[in-house]
Specification:
The structure is a single chain. α4 packs antiparallel against α6, α5 crosses α6 and α5 runs antiparallel to α7. By secondary structure, the chain is mainly α. A hairpin with a 4-residue loop joins β4 and β5. The protein has one domain.
């Protein structure tokens, strides 16, 4: 199975627990995303393991396992993952599309807030919550790992590259260059 096949959100790549929810609720596996848990403009997530997923038409709740349990295989990432190799673009794109949605609903976060959230996901994927941004990134990571065949080393590499990107954009304590860059450069 090549990288393109592993990173595609297809029914045969989905973990059994998530596949059961997808089939039970008639969700399209190729269209899954994470629903932002808000009430009005306030974060409304009590338990980050209870992930609301959607295919844009229907939604369902899935109880996610720890991120360390969702990684599959032992494939090592390429040495220069921070250069966003084409095969890994679907992973970066999945995460960053969700980041854009988070900021459009709950407001832009600073480069330092992204750096802190990515750093915590990179060092301690299942560590304690740092707040809404971190919890949402955790949920998005869980869905990414459950819908694609990604090893933990690859996941850590992708998050490490996003951490480096947020760090590179952070020029001042209140800079919002990372989200500005995403807004201007992500395909719509």
């Amino acid at each position: 199975m090549n990288t393109d096949d592993r990173f595609a959100s297809r029914e045969d790549n989905i973990t059994p627990a998530l596949r059961e929810v997808v089939l039970l609720h008639g969700l399209r596996p190729d269209k899954l995303s994470v629903v932002l848990p808000v009430q009005g403009v306030l974060w409304a997530c009590q338990d980050r393991h209870r992930v609301r997923i959607s295919d844009t038409q229907k939604s369902a709740e899935w109880h996610a396992a720890a991120l360390r349990e969702l990684g599959r295989g032992d494939v090592q990432p390429p040495p220069h993952l921070d250069r966003f190799p084409p095969a890994y673009v679907p992973l970066f794109s999945f995460l960053e599309r969700h980041v854009l949605r988070f900021c459009s609903v709950l407001g832009d976060k600073t480069d330092q807030e992204f750096e802190e959230a990515y750093s915590h996901l990179h060092r301690r994927p299942d560590g304690r919550s740092l707040g809404p941004l971190h919890d949402f990134l955790w949920q998005v990571s869980a869905v990414m790992l459950a819908t694609r065949i990604v090893s933990l080393p690859e996941f850590e590499g992708v998050i490490g590259a996003l951490l480096a990107s947020a760090r590179r954009w952070g020029l001042r304590p209140i800079s919002r260059n990372y989200i500005g860059y995403l807004r201007n450069n992500m395909p719509r």
